[in-house]
Amino acid sequence: MKIVIAGAGEVGSHLAKMFRADNNDVTVIDNDAVRLRHLGTYTDVEAIFGEPTSLSALKEAETGTSDLFIAVHPFSPQEVNLVAAMLARKLGAGKVIARISEEEMLSAENKQIFRDLGIELVFFPEKIAADEIVESLRSASGTEATEFGHGKLQLSMFRLEENSRFTDLKLSEIVALLSPEEMAQFRIIAVARQDKTIIPRFQTRFMLGDLVYILSTREGLETLGKYFGIGMVEIEKVMIVGGGEIGKMVARSLDEHCLVKIIEMDKERCVELSEALPEDVLIINGDGRNPDLLNEEGIREYDAFMAFTEGDEENILACVVAKKFGIRRTIAEVENIEYVRLAEEMGVDTVINKKLLTASRIFKFTLSGKARFVKYMSNIDAEVLEYTAAEGSAITRKPIKKLSLPEDVIIGGVVRGKEAIIAVGDTQIQPGDRVAVFALPEAVKTVDKFFK
Fold this sequence. Notes:
The chain is α/β, with parallel strands linked by helices.
């Protein structure tokens, strides 16, 4: 696939690296030579120096013959990306995507206007992150979670602690420990151990500190809590440190269901937040990294704590402090991918990275139209996908165990109408089923062919 990216900022560079690793033909346009040189130090792409809206630069990149054009130019008004995308469409690019920076642009009416202009997707990374955070809070297990089939299946992440009944057991021993009813409620999908992603086999031993990814039915969550020594967490009061766009959108989404308090250092931003948010959202001007202030603001009374300041280290440490105060659910925005694992090791329950979330949305455009969504998990080198099984597709022709799927692919579960099914070898996928798939990067394109 030929892909042209306008912008070598953090998001554009991450996308370029990801698509190039998948053997795509990638060209990046940027008007900053330093950004282009930096990109060239860690991935092999064609770099073109020029403005993202320059017709000569777009033509030099052969945009007109590209399968996918992505406008993500950094530190520019959103109009720059929109104009670049529209020019790419006029030149003949296949699919066109643009980054925006205003939430109002995401209204149904405005998105239709962009589609009429030939732009398939406009995305606002901060809104994607905010939606992910709100969705994760729906998980009563208090862990990072992804829903399938409107919540009928859920992929959750659990850390193996000393009080977990799975610690130091092989998968075969865990299976022997479970009743048939429990076996039908969940399936262990993957393990993150240090920098490795492990697809568990019967002889795989689960170790203290492992991050274990499990697909379960709604009924299975309580069972998992029992085995992992984790109680269910109901979120009623939320404290947010950092009143940027993510904090504002999360507060607005949670206001109807929770008591929300935002702590923001900038006085002018506090005024803006008080005007933009409902009256019952509490706005406090202060340094949310200060443990004394957190104590004064009654942090011990809150169910969840979130840190969305501009500093990764500050967000991680703030969540660690919140844990010391007894907060059961912490969420940190961490933009440096190298820090994601560190945050998990320090006890942060959910780590949000805009680049990974954005990449998931865009990667879907390189797959078949049967992929409903794609998500990169923050701690493992793998993708989680939801497909709709097409009539006559290879995935529907045989039971799972006879499909010759790659070893690095697991069909975790199926949503069929109102029924949620944990998949096993004898499961026969039917046309119209919504299928939860877990795959390592090198196997994604192969498994995609099974659903066409």
